[in-house]
């Protein structure tokens, strides 16, 4: 990429860049001077979450991670409408006071010499501004929008003026010397609470510091640093009050809750104790441990007693059987181990009498009356013993049944001990839980009372509100630099789009991108009317020099001929208006001034232009007349040039025929050319455009050189594509291109670089810069 060429391509529009810079930089400068500067005021506070957690009376958390750095709740509180609404009301942000400096910019002031008292609700205040002046009779209040003027008499504020939403009176300080304020002019802006809240919310920024846990940064952006500091200070105060208020609310709710819970737990504890008491009474339990010992001992005693009774029954049955089997003279056993003393005594008595009977029997016979009487008594006594044993056995059986029943009851009681112990354990566990909770609630209540007595905020101000007096908007350096860059970018963008969308031909590169391997023969400069025909043999004009260069370049394309016949040069273009007639005219003059005999023929029968350069009537007889009637001699239609060159003959197109294509394709024209070659050194043909009609293509083979004319900033690139097809098909031969109408000032940088430093310089007429690039009427 040729940077110099690219630069010069845009540099030709330097006046518009200059105008754009002046406009944007000037507007930025005025904007900076007019618009009040906006400043950023910031404050930093610290919320001690650890202290807050330590002072909590009841903490319920399953999260093991610390929440010290989470300040979302505080940020939401500060930015909430309800919180900021208190700030608006406390600072009376519905009213904004200014001191007028000039008509565009105003200076915000905190203290004014008057006091405004709204006559309507602040929520219903209109969003409007008033200009206020103080004079010797009172106040003059002006509505800038409607230009309505209100006169308030007096300084005491008793008068209510219809149409004003407030009363006004002088402040206590201003009443001492009202005349001091007569020269000042003030402006007050009113807005309803909703708008003031919206404005405050939009200008407030609350951020948490990621690097410091528990730190909040408050920022307020406004044009008044004092007001911004007051707002941040008020926010800190309100936040501190809110924290304490929330703690007090939590304290009251906690104490109330604890009292209620203590009351409920007291009832629940008493109820459990009553249940335990009834349960012990119903189950005849004094102490559970003693009850277990007693029931276990009772079951053991009952079991032992039953075993002894069963043993007695067995011994009694043995004794009965033994006595029944014993003989009349056999003694009864005295070692039955019966626990019946009566039976044991009867056995002893029986054995004593049996011994007495044996003694008698030894001294007397068995029929001895005494012996018989004793034997009878022994039988009776034995039967009594058996009867006593049977009675004792019945008693024992009855006792056995009783023991079994009592033992069953004792076993049941022992078996029920675990269940009763479990039930009593649950009762005791509930009772212990209630007692522990009751004690804990009492402890928490005491802690709550103590904490409530020493409630304090966990908020600490790290940095008081401070204003950075380096304005954040508008920033002069950045703003001016931005305006400067924008002043360059806007015309650059417009120029870039214009050049990008531009399909016209401006330089050789534009041509060579479409038509390759075709030489550029020269550049015909854009000239004004006075220089249009300035092409004599001694002329040093731009058109004369350019024409000579063109002739020189064409000569390199002319084929070398062995005969002395003249050369045919054909001038054509793609469309009308590209200056082919102008180029053919000057080329003919230049060649003729080189002592060459030249014939200039106007072959464009449809729209001839050559007669304008020679001040000849368009109806003058010429080529069309000859082609229509071969009997005529074409030489009779020639006109000698007496103004530009004596070696130049001109054959004009003649009268416009109804059938130019048929005329131009008959043999008369070719015969004319062949005959003219014998007479003239050069035959120059001014032909019709090839893209509009096919006339030129019908005789293009007669030309030795085809000069294709394109016009600077006029010919479309798409037109060259069809011409390229003509060249590829050899419908146009030995083609060279000439660029016509080149603006030598703007074309520099497009690859032309034409500079005729040796030419005659006419005195320059000074013109304004905005007219220098205006297109001059061209050929």
TrEMBL record:
The keyword Nucleotide-binding applies. Keywords: ATP-binding, Cell membrane, Membrane, Nucleotide-binding, Transmembrane, Transmembrane helix. It is a multi-pass membrane protein. Its main location: membrane. Pfam families: Wzz. The chain crosses the membrane at residues 13-35, 478-501. The keyword Zinc-finger does not apply. NCBIfam families: eps_fam. Residues 12-91 form the Polysaccharide chain length determinant N-terminal domain. InterPro entries: Bact_polysacc_biosynth/exp, LPS_length_determ_N, P-loop_NTPase, Wzc-like_C. GO terms for molecular function: ATP binding; protein tyrosine kinase activity. One of its GO terms (cellular component) is plasma membrane. It is found in: Cell membrane. This is Polysaccharide chain length determinant N-terminal domain-containing protein. Gene3D superfamilies: P-loop containing nucleotide triphosphate hydrolases. PANTHER family: FERRIC ENTEROBACTIN TRANSPORT PROTEIN FEPE, TYROSINE-PROTEIN KINASE.
């Amino acid at each position: 990429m040729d940077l110099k060429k690219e630069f010069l391509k845009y540099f030709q529009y330097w006046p518009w860049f200059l105008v754009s810079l002046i406009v944007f930089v000037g507007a930025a400068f005025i904007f900076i001077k007019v618009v009040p500067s906006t400043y950023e005021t910031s404050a930093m506070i610290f919320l001690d979450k650890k202290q807050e957690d330590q002072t909590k009376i009841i903490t319920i958390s399953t999260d093991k991670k610390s929440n010290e750095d989470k300040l979302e709740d505080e940020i939401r509180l500060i930015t909430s409408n309800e919180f900021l609404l208190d700030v608006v009301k406390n600072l009376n942000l519905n009213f904004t006071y200014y001191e007028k400096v000039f008509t565009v910019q105003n200076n915000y002031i905190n203290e004014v010499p008057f006091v405004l008292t709204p006559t309507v609700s602040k929520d219903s205040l209109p969003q409007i501004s008033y200009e206020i002046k103080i004079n010797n009779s009172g106040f003059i209040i002006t509505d800038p929008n409607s230009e309505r003027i209100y006169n308030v008499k007096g300084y005491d504020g008793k008068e209510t003026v219809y149409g004003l939403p407030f009363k006004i009176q002088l402040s206590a300080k201003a009443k001492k010397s009202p005349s001091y304020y007569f020269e000042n002019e003030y402006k007050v802006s009113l807005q309803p609470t909703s708008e003031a809240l919206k404005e405050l919310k939009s200008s407030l920024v609350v951020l948490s510091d990621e690097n410091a846990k528990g730190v909040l940064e408050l920022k307020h952006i406004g044009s008044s640093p004092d007001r911004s500091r007051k707002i941040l200070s008020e926010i800190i105060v309100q936040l501190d009050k809110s924290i304490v208020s929330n703690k007090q609310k939590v304290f009251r709710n906690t104490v109330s809750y604890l009292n209620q819970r203590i009351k409920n737990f007291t009832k629940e504890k008493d109820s459990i104790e009553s249940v335990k008491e009834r349960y012990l009474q119903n189950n005849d339990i004094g102490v559970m441990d003693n009850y277990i010992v007693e029931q276990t001992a009772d079951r053991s005693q009952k079991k032992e007693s039953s075993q002894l009774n069963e043993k007695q029954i067995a011994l009694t049955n043995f004794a009965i059987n033994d006595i029944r089997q014993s003989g009349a003279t056999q003694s009864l056993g005295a070692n039955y181990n019966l626990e019946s003393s009566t039976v044991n005594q009867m056995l002893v008595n029986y054995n004593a009498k049996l011994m007495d009977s044996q003694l008698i029997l030894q001294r007397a016979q068995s029929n001895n009356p005494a012996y018989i009487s004793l034997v009878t008594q022994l039988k009776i006594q034995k039967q009594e013993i058996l009867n006593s044993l049977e009675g004792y056995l019945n008693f024992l059986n009855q006792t056995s049944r009783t023991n079994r029943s009592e033992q069953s009851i004792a076993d049941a009681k022992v078996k029920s001990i675990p269940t009763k112990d479990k039930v009593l354990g649950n009762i005791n566990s509930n009772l212990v839980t209630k007692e522990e909770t009751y004690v804990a609630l009492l402890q928490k209540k005491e802690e709550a009372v103590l904490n409530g007595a020493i409630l304090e905020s966990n908020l600490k101000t790290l940095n008081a509100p401070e204003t950075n007096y380096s304005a954040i908007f508008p920033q002069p350096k950045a703003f001016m630099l931005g305006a400067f860059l924008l002043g360059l970018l806007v015309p650059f963008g417009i120029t870039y789009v214009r050049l990008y969308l531009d399909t016209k031909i401006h330089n050789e590169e534009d041509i060579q991108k479409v038509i390759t391997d075709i030489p550029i023969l020269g550049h015909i400069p854009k000239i004004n009317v006075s220089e249009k025909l300035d092409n004599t043999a001694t002329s040093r004009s731009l058109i004369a020099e350019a024409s000579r260069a063109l002739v020189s370049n064409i000569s390199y394309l002319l084929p070398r001929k062995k005969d002395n016949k003249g050369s045919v040069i054909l001038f054509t273009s793609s469309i009308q208006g590209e200056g082919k007639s102008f180029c053919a005219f000057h080329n003919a003059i230049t060649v003729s001034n080189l002592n060459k005999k030249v014939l200039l023929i106007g072959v464009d029968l449809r729209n001839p232009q050559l007669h304008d350069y020679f001040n000849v009537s368009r109806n003058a007889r010429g080529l069309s007349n000859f082609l229509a009637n071969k009997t005529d001699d074409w030489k009779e239609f020639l006109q000698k040039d007496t103004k530009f060159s004596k070696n130049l003959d001109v054959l004009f197109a003649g009268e416009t025929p109804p059938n130019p294509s048929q005329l131009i394709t008959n043999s008369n024209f070719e015969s004319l050319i062949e005959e003219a070659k014998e007479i003239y050194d050069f035959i120059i043909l001014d032909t019709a455009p090839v893209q509009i009609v096919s006339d030129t293509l019908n005789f293009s083979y007669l030309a030795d050189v085809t000069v294709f004319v394109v016009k600077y900033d006029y010919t479309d690139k798409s037109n060259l594509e069809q011409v390229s097809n003509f060249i590829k098909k050899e419908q146009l031969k030995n083609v060279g291109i000439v660029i016509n109408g080149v603006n030598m000032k703007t074309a520099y940088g497009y690859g032309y670089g034409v500079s005729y430093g040796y030419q005659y310089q006419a005195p320059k007429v000074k013109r304004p810069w905005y007219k220098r690039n205006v297109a001059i009427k061209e050929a």
